[in-house]
Every structure is written in C-alpha cells, then in structure tokens.
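haha ok so turns out i had the wrong file open the whole time. this is the CORRECT one, sorry everyone. sequence first:
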Amino acid sequence: MTRLLEPAEPGTDMDVRVLEAYVNQSQAEAQEVTIARAIELKHSPSLIAGLCLETSKLFKMAGM
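then structure:
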C-alpha cells in the first residue's frame, strides 16, 4: 500500500523495489556489526558462519 500522492516513477528513490533494496542493505550492514561482535567475543565458528550466510542472503536480495 502506497501513501504517496502520486506513484513513484520506476527507478527513483521512492520506487518500492528501490526501497526494498535499501531495507535489505541496511539490515545486512547492521548484521555485519553483529558478525564482528561475534568474532570479537570468540563465538563458535558455526554460529559465525550461519550469521555470514544470512547476511549474504540479505545482500543478494538487495542486489536483485
């Protein structure tokens, strides 16, 4: 559901696809901080690998 008075033009910053990419990129970048913290705290490699996998999925979705 859009709340803009006029529909956003394709490819502009308010295009739904662009906004979704921004959200996914922001979430992935925030998750990078979580990964760095997990490494710093010497969490298990499997936990860190899982976080990395999920983060890579977010970056991939942002790039689509």
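The helical segments are 16-40, 45-62.
again sry for the mixup
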